[in-house]
Amino acid sequence: MKDRNLAEGRWLWRRLYVFVASAALWWLLARAVGRTTPADLPRVADGLMGLIALMLILYLVAPSAQQMIALLANLRLRLRLAAEGRA
């Protein structure tokens, strides 16, 4: 099976998820601003903006599922080779 058949290989689903989730969080932020009392507004806005920032950081920095599998396979191989070398 080729990698291009996987959704993660095209990044379409990852980008679509981040776009939709970011839009939903911005919508929640706009609604929270309108409904929250002035005293609680900074705490609510900070929390939602923190979630948006976390999602964007994870999108930009976090490895994809394929990269994680490759990293774990490489780590397993290294551990096995190290164990065989010590025996």
Shape: elongated
Portion in strands: under 5%
Given helix and strand content, the structural type is: mainly alpha
Distance between the termini: 37 Å
User: How many alpha or pi helices?
Assistant: 4
CA radius of gyration is 20 Å
Indicate the mean pLDDT.
Answer: 80
**What is the number of E strands?**
0
Biggest β-sheet, characterized? none
pLDDT < 50 stretches: none
Order of helices and strands: HHHH
Please estimate the helix content.
over 70%
Structure description:
The chain has 4 helices and no strands. Helix 2 runs antiparallel to helix 3 (41-61). It has a domain at 3-62. The protein is an all-alpha fold and 87 residues long. 82% of the residues lie in helices and 0% in strands. The protein is elongated, with a radius of gyration of 20 Å. The model has no long low-confidence stretch (mean pLDDT 80).
Short summary:
This protein is mainly α and 87 residues long. It has helices at 7-10, 12-35, 41-61, 65-86.
